[in-house]
Amino acid sequence: MKCFALLFLFFSSQVLAAPFPVTSSSILTDPSFGLFYRGHGFSLKTVGTDWVLAPDENLSSPMSYKYISKSKSLSKSAELSLKMDQVSSKQNLDSYAKKWMKEYPQFGFEILGTKPLKMGGSNALLVDLYQKNKNQQVRQLIFHKGSKIVILTCTDERASFKKTLTQCNQMMSNFNWL
Length: 178
Hints:
Elements lengths: L1 H15 L25 E3 L6 E4 L9 E6 L9 E8 L6 H9 L7 E11 L2 E10 L4 E10 L2 E10 L3 H12 L2 E3 L1
Antiparallel strand pairs: 1-9, 2-3, 3-4, 4-8, 5-6, 6-7, 7-8
């Protein structure tokens, strides 16, 4: 009888296991743990946040991802996007950001402020923007390490941005270089 019980316990644990490692319910492929970004050298966890990875066929690059609110607590226009970029290992964060910030006014953005930070295991730059044409407020957090750049962009209508910003900051604080 003891042998039967041990045999039963052994096979029951095998039934619950994934058929192949790193498939189905593995935390390595679960978007909420953000470990599928490991190949790019970072992780971004959504556990404990209001954000969920969303499929988006309209993204311009396979190096871009979009997150939307999984509850009704944020407005329908609230979104957070992630974009990865490669730069020369000699290029620093300031020169990368200045290049883009020169172009923001052409797209109707007003720069509200910038702030350099140490976050996620490296240097980062926080950029707050307002776009009059769409009445949207934007927060970007640009991370740089070696030749890799990761940009997290939080966007919402100006009237509801304050509430969205709390959720965005929580998500942005979950970014870590490996």
